[in-house]
Amino acid sequence: MPAAAVTGSRRRHSLGLAYLGLLPSWLLMSFALLIPILIVAGVSVSTRGAYGGFEWSFDLSGYRQILFNEGWTGEMEFTPQYLIIILRTLILAAVTTLLCMMLALPVAYYIAQQPTHRKALLVYLVTLPFWMSMILRIYAWMIILGRDGPVPRFLEFFGAPSGLSLMYNDGATLAAMVYTYIPLMVLPVFASIEKLDGTLIEAAHDLYGNRWVALRRVILPLTAPGIISGAILVFVPALGAVLEPILMGGGKQMMMGSLIQLQFGVAATGPSGRPSR
């Protein structure tokens, strides 16, 4: 057998073993990601059951309900209420992601510059909030920002009215969301900065580049993969946030997560909750 044919046969055999080795991960991804998405897509085109829930049938009224509502006489009326909720949620998630990015970059850079033993401790402290239930963390923020909390009392020291409460507004919701999701931004950014070659930053300074130039021309481009990963990890769960808008915002502004919870829980109109997700 020619040498080229033997080499090709070995290459195909190695390729086959590689695909076989990836089989467990493919099965896991199918069960944990693909199948749930297909189920959600199937339910989104089903119809509402007579006693709640849904029935398996093809119906696009759930998607149509995002833009139109059926009037008393059967005509379709444009209703922007769901669009407003979606837009409000997108803006809040985008601002949360931006603030997390701005805060996580200096934190991750500082951690990456520390000695190895201190670096491990600081990374552990970043992940420490995950050891506590999210609802307890939100209640802690309610105490911090609520009436007679540390922050209102601090502001009263500078002339703010007594009995001030910073709760039940968009700012409180945003603060809780940034606090909740910022570890998801710090960790991937830290992983990227840790791999950054420090001599490139020194070279930027040697070429008379100030810190802003080094950040803009060296650090940000080389750590872009970590920043993008962190942005995805923050933005996606922020779209479905439920606890923060309800507990910190007082439920005054409907978000997509609250809408989905309402559709599935109180209204029991499962198919209508799918497209808004």
Keywords:
277 residues; mainly alpha; two-stranded antiparallel sheet
Structure commentary:
By secondary structure, this protein is mainly α. The strands form two sheets. It has a two-stranded antiparallel sheet with strand order 1-2. Helices cover 69% and strands 4% of the residues. The N and C termini lie far apart (58 Å). Strand 3 and strand 4 (76-78) form a beta hairpin. It contains 14 helices and four strands.
SSE topology string? HHEEHEEHHHHHHHHHHH
**Quaternary status:** single chain
Which strand order do you get reading across the main beta sheet? 1-2
Q: What is the percentage of strand-forming residues? A: under 5%
**Unreliable sequence segments:** none
Straight-line N-to-C gap: 58 Å
In short:
The mean pLDDT is 84.
Please describe the topology of this protein.
Elements: H1 3-21, H2 23-44, E1 47-48, E2 54-55, H3 61-64, E3 68-70, E4 76-78, H4 81-112, H5 116-127, H6 134-145, H7 150-157, H8 170-194, H9 198-206, H10 211-222, H11 224-239, H12 243-248, H13 256-264, H14 270-273
Antiparallel strand pairs: 1-2, 3-4
Helix pairs in contact: 4-8, 4-11, 8-11, 9-10
